[in-house]
Amino acid sequence: MKRFHVHVSVPALDEAIRFYSGLFAAEPTVRKPDYAKWMLDDPRVNFAISQRGAEPGLNHLGIQVENEAELREMQQRLESTEADFIEEAGTACCYARSDKYWISDPVGIAWESYHTLDTIPMFNESPEAGGCCVPAAAVAAPAPQSPTVFSQPATCCGGTASKSSCC
Predict the structure, then answer these.
(1) In this structure, how many other beta carbons lie within 10 angstroms of the beta carbon of residue 92?
(2) What is this structure's pTM?
(3) Domains and CATH numbers, the chain
(4) How far from 85 is each of 3, 55, 119, 155, CA to CA, in Å?
């Protein structure tokens, strides 16, 4: 069974861990000085945060698979998109060794499809790497946004949200 994966870059790890632990009613499954991960069953999601110098906000999305056959299925799905993707075999990232594929969606959000093979004691094998392990080639330039992206009135979401935070 596949698991949805979300990775968010945060400016203050301890504060984010407190927030997400409360939101998920669970402590992180993995906690490191610069990283935390929740492997949740309700909802079934692998939610990770890191404080490694990347711009705060969404880092990437992904689909974690449980075996090699599911990873091959994901590779076929990526091929069906007719977009370029990157294959990484046995790569080290986020305290794990994994086989994975990277692709960017039409607006430039990086998507990772991966099968975790083992845990490792370091974030990645590149000492100079700061942020998460998203390959630069996997991050496409986002499509230009039209000025009507936030066409809802500022009173959406119960009347308290600003235009930039509307649902």
Answers:
(1) 18
(2) 0.69
(3) 3-141 (3.10.180.10)
(4) 20, 23, 25, 40
